[in-house]
Structures are given as C-alpha cells and as structure tokens.
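Entry:
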Amino acid sequence: MMKIRSYRQGGFTLVELLVVIAIIGVMVGLLLPAVQAAREAARRMQCSNKLKQLGLAMHNYESTYGFLPPRKSGTTTGTVHNSGRLTGSFIGILPFIEEGPLYDRIAAGDTANSIPPWGPSVWSGWAAWDNSPAALRCPSDPAAVPGGRLNSYSFSVGDQAAGIRDAIQVRGLFGRQQNGRGVAFREITDGLSNTVMMSERLIHPVDRNGTTVGAQEAEVVVNNAEVADVHLTPSLCLQVVSGRFLHDGTLVYSRTGRSWNDAQANRVAFNTILGPNGPSCLNSGTSGDQSNLVIPPTSRHPGGVNAVVADGSVRFIPDSIDAGDSNLQPAASGLSRYGVWGALGSKDGGESVQMP
C-alpha cells in the first residue's frame, strides 16, 4: 500500500528571522566600539610616529647649527617682508623632514613676483604658504584635512603665560629668535629627557564671534576667550561655559592651527600650566595676536596627548598628570608652581621630575 509522506516547507518563520536580526544587531553593537577603538589606536600610532619624525628633525637641526630653531623669526626690512612672524621652528626643519624643495622655495622667494627671500607677510597669499606639509597633521584631528595652512602640532613655551607671543626668553624651548638662534641643548639644564619639546593642539581655524560657545567647540577643547589677568591667575580659565569654556560675553577666538607659517603663540604654541585637554583662554589683543595666554595641548586621543621630549622620545601625557595649583601666578624663574606638568615644561627650573 502506497504511503503519502508530508514534507515541511524550507525557510524561516518570522519569529526566527527577528531573533537572527536581533542577534546580529547585538553583535554589531558589541563590535563597533572595538573597531572604532582599533582605528583610533592606529591613528594615535600614526600621530606618534609623526611627532617622532619632528623630534628627530629637531635633533638633526640642533646637531647641524648648535641650537634649536626659534619659534618666531623672519624679516622686517624692505618694502615687502614677513613681519618677523615666520614660524622658524617649522621652516627650519623642512630639509630634515624631506621637504627640502619647499624650504628652498621659501628661502629664495619669488623675485619675478616681487616676493623677497623668506616670503611676504605670513597672512599674504603665496603658494609656498598655502599647503602645509602632511607631517604637520595628526590623523586623529578631525580638522586636519589635506590642503590649506593647517598644523596639528605646536611648540612648548613652558610654564609661562605672560608675553609669550614675542618673548625671546621663555621658560620652555621655543621663543622669539635672538641673534638668529634659539635654545641650545646645553641650556636645557633640567635634562633633555625631562623637558617637553612639542605636543598636539587640535586645529580650529574659524573664529566664533558672538556670545555663545557651540557644542563642537566645547567638545574639541580649542576655543580661546578673553579673560582679565589669566596670565596671573590661570584658574580663571577653569570657570566654564557649555561644559568647558569661559568667555566674557563679547568675543570668542579660535585660530589654533590656522597658519603653520605664522609664529603667533595662539597658532603654533602651547604651555604647561593647565593639564592636557584643559580649556584655553587669553587676554589682550585680537585676531589670534594675543600676548598673554593659557593654551594647554589638546587632542582627540582618549585620556591625554602625545608629546615629544627634548631627547627625541615620544610619550603619552595623561590628562590626570599633576598640574599643581593654577591659582598661583607663574614663576619667573626657579621651580615651577604647576606640579610635574609645569616642571616638564621648564628647561632650567631646577626641578627633579621624571616623565610619566
């Protein structure tokens, strides 16, 4: 007798499909942060390698000339000049980061177009100014896009806030040139391995004119605001608005990393007063030309910033590093008042500290 067999139709029920989709969603939710963390780890490594390259270039420069390139240098005579605002520290090391042709172009000028050696004013339009080397941009910096005059790295002026725009002698390693030279390694009496040379500052090239601080500015920690006497009492910077920033209700500046060729402190410097990724603020001056500033290094790396030390090594400086008492006025000489962080900024403060 013939038997009739029944067969179940293949496929998934709606419930089974929904369960599978839910499992996939959970797995994606678990894996995505890990993927993002891995990508940031790779970007941080690339950023660290670029700082290592810059540190090596500084050593090669010092070995060649007997001193580090000054942060601020340039020409001031003739009908066309660069106003003595050339970022000598970046320009000087160009031959040591495989940018010799750019260095030669800047050094020669363009006589056919009435541009003298070392270029016109740093804010002028000139092709040699208009594209900063890729070595100056950190991949973790969201504004570090190709093209333009952008830079993610800055030079240490140490635990000093007053007059750092034009000071020849600063507590750190990079002031204005004196007789065409900068600091020599032999002058770093605190020790090369205990003195910060360069670190990161997030690019924020657009001014925010008005009375509010936007969410993006608060997130990336790069705004600067006018605050009376911040160079005497850095803790004024810690009075915060929108979670991170203080401003006086009239004008907020954001010109960090805007012009790699312009040596003004707000563009290419940092100090070691407030800890890494702290708020920035300033007083006196406009358009990024301020003289008295509290400008800590900043980054998008979780928990701190990369920094290159005067011995050429790259270290990760945590946000939690001891930064002393920001209610105190910066010391003019001798021991820093800003803990381990301030001591790492001073080249000859006489402190005995070790890198974290």
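The chain has one domain: 40-345.
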